[in-house]
Write a structure and sequence with these properties.
Largest sheet: 8 strands, mixed
Strand content: 25-35%
Number of helices: 8
Strand order of the largest sheet: 3-2-4-5-1-10-11-14
Distance between the termini: 24 Å
Shape: globular
Order of helices and strands: EHEHEHEHHEHEEEHEEEEEEH
Number of strands: 14
Radius of gyration: 17 Å
CATH topology: Rossmann fold
Number of domains: 1
Helix content: 25-40%
CATH architecture: 3-Layer(aba) Sandwich
């Protein structure tokens, strides 16, 4: 596989817990001062709130922001292929891994994004939008952690929200021990950058947030090994108490409306 895919264990479009540092890092990885970035919010059903927060987060930094809502193509027709090919980065939002894969397949989105990758467009994804690129992941789409197939552009597996969701981590360790392809457990506000299919960078944007390499061990048990990560946090945070409260309320509203995570 050619191109760059940045996967994250969890990231929200707000100013809490290192999320702004991640936005800045994504922009820096494009190599452009004002990159064109398109959101694909398919995994959550194209919610307006996620779209508006994405536009605020990246748009406030001078990015040329857009979104494609596959559920609204009838009302808002767009040449999906032509638009995605013009981007510097494509951001795939979180939600349900199962629903994401099911909706993308008839639209041929995975094949289209693979072509974008070959042309130099960077792909960014968090939660379900991160696990979908691997052979497998652990999804909560059914209400409890379950293994699910991804698109297989990246070898191995990924488990997101690694320590925020202990049941998901426990299920991932069990599945890797039983034969799921080995891979990584990623805490929220961490990221792994793959270049041409190979891991080229690991970062953390929050104190205590880490990435773990997970592989089968003896007697059918999986073993975890921490992965060295660079710290992308700024020296000081510009977040004010009022900003933090507003972001927290907006985030809770979206989580309740979205319902599903990963």
């Amino acid at each position: 596989m050619k191109g760059r895919i940045l996967v994250m264990g969890g990231h929200e479009f707000d100013r809490l817990d290192g999320n702004e540092a991640i936005v800045d890092h994504v922009i820096s990885l494009t190599g452009k001062e004002t990159p064109s970035i398109c959101l694909l919010p398919t995994a959550s059903g194209d919610p307006e709130d996620q779209i508006s927060r994405f536009r605020r987060s990246f748009g406030s930094r001078g990015c040329q922001v857009s979104d494609i809502s596959l559920f609204r193509l009838g009302a808002n027709p767009i040449d999906v292929s032509a638009h995605l090919m013009k981007q510097d980065a494509i951001y795939v939002g979180g939600g349900s891994l199962v629903n994401l894969v099911a909706v993308w397949r008839p639209h041929g989105i995975a094949e289209l994004i693979e072509e974008c990758l070959e042309r130099g467009v960077m792909v960014v994804g968090q939660s379900a939008g991160a696990m979908c690129w691997f052979e497998a992941g652990i999804t909560s789409s059914t209400g409890r952690p379950e293994p699910a197939e991804g698109l297989g552009l990246l070898k191995g597996s990924l488990c997101v929200h690694y320590h925020r969701d202990p049941d998901r981590r426990v299920r991932y360790l069990a599945e890797v021990g039983r034969g799921m392809p080995p891979g990584y457990g990623a805490d929220d506000q961490t990221g792994l950058l793959f270049t041409d299919g190979e891991l080229s960078e690991v970062f953390s944007a929050r104190e205590g947030a880490a990435v773990w390499k997970v592989a089968p061990g003896a007697a059918g048990e999986a073993v975890e090994e921490p992965v060295e990560a660079i710290d992308i946090r700024p020296a000081s945070s510009p977040v004010t108490p009022g900003d933090a409260v507003d972001d927290f309320r907006a985030l809770n509203t979206w989580r309740q409306s979205a319902g599903l995570r990963g």
